[in-house]
Amino acid sequence: MYQGADPNSPDGPAMTPRKPAVNFILVTLLLDVLGFGLIIPVMPGLVASFGGGDVGESSGNFGWFIAVYGLMQFLFSPMLGALSDKYGRRPIILFSLFGAGLDYVLMAFAPSLEWLFVGRIISGITGANFSAVNAYVADVTPPEKRAASYGMIGAAFGIGFVVGPALGGVLGSLGPRVPFMAAAVMNLCNAAYGYFVLPESLTAENRKEFTGKAAVPWSSVGALRRYPVVLGITFSLILVGFAQQGLQSTWVLYTTYRFNWTPLDNGLSLAVLGVCAAIVQGGLTRVIVPKIGERKGLLLG
Predict the structure, then answer these.
(1) Which terminus of the chain has fewer Cβ atoms in its 10 Å neighbourhood, N or C?
(2) Neighbours of 197 (CB within 10 A)
(3) Nearest 5°: phi and psi at 293?
(4) pLDDT attached to residue 6
(5) Is the pTM of this model over 0.90?
């Protein structure tokens, strides 16, 4: 468990309490999801604007935008996790926040669909910092409290998905690029704040050498075969991801085409989804798991 940081250490300023660091991690996750949610109501319209407004063409392009984001997270999550094992969690988290902020600026001023696509690729890479964030929480949280801590991570995710689309819908009424600038400001401010308040959680003796095998996703997937239970849970998460991402990639397109919904309408509808996620993951999880255990709680979910 993290106990403090040397004020002269490159890992950052001194901080002995553990709670402020965890709070920062929760805010980081919140802003990650908030930035993602901000652009959901306006992204399909922005993509369509580069294609002359053709619904069929823009739907295909938007599908690729969703797919490449997930692909980059799949490819780079193990790499960022392995880098954090060698260099520490702090530099990886701060680098990803700073990179995400600059990337949102790029997308806000993208002059073409190709540049917007490049920005989306970078978003997926910087968004892969979840591996380092989860590792940070594991570093500073005792085993008996990890379920509650990860429940709070789920709550932060849910709150971001409540506020993000709703705020994105409001800002989108001012222009399709305004939410991108808002996301850029949030991430850059969080990176600057984290530089001063976030200590390193991984001690020098617990760091590992970086290896190419640990940085590739198929190696991690192959390693899961040694843990049948974890492999089964992973397969379940893949199925959940298929369902959720399939809905996200078509929701705004469908409601806009079928019901003429505005970005605000779409943002509010997605905010309802976030409210449900926040209630379950941030509230019910902490009540149910201690009473019936992790396995039964998982099956119930």
Answers:
(1) N
(2) 14
(3) 95, 165
(4) 43
(5) no
Q: Are 96 and 41 in contact (CB under 8 A)?
A: no
Q: Which residues contact 159 (CB under 8 A, 6 or more apart)?
A: 30, 33, 274, 278, 282
Between the alpha carbon of residue 157 and those of residues 24, 27, 41, 151, the distances in Å are 14, 10, 17, 10
Single-letter code of the amino acid located at 244: Q
Angle at 92 between CA 90 and CA 164, to 5 degrees: 95
Cα 146 versus chain centre, distance: 19
* Cβ atoms 250, 114 nearer than 8 A: no
Q: What is the mean pLDDT of the chain?
A: 80
8-state DSSP, 13: S
User: How far is the C-alpha of 146 from the C-alpha of 183, rounded, in Å?
Assistant: 29
Q: How many CA atoms lie within 13 A of 118 on its CB side?
A: 13
Taken in order 133, 116, 241, 239, is the CA torsion positive or negative? negative
Residue 297 tokens, joined: 């709680």
Element (H, E) at 258: helix 228-259
Architecture of the domain made up of 19-300: Up-down Bundle (1.20)
Which residues, 6+ apart, have CB-to-CB distance to 143 below 8 Å?
Answer: none
Query: Tens digits of per-residue pLDDT, 77-105?
Result: 888 888 999 899 999 999 999 999 999 99
Q: DSSP label at 141?
A: S
Encode 32-71: b = buried (16+ Cβ within 10 Å), e = exposed.
bbbbbbbbbbbbbbbbbebbeeeeeebbebbeebbebbee
Contacts of 121 (CB under 8 A, 6+ apart): 68, 69, 72
* Three-class secondary structure of residue 100 per DSSP: helix
pLDDT of residue 1: 39
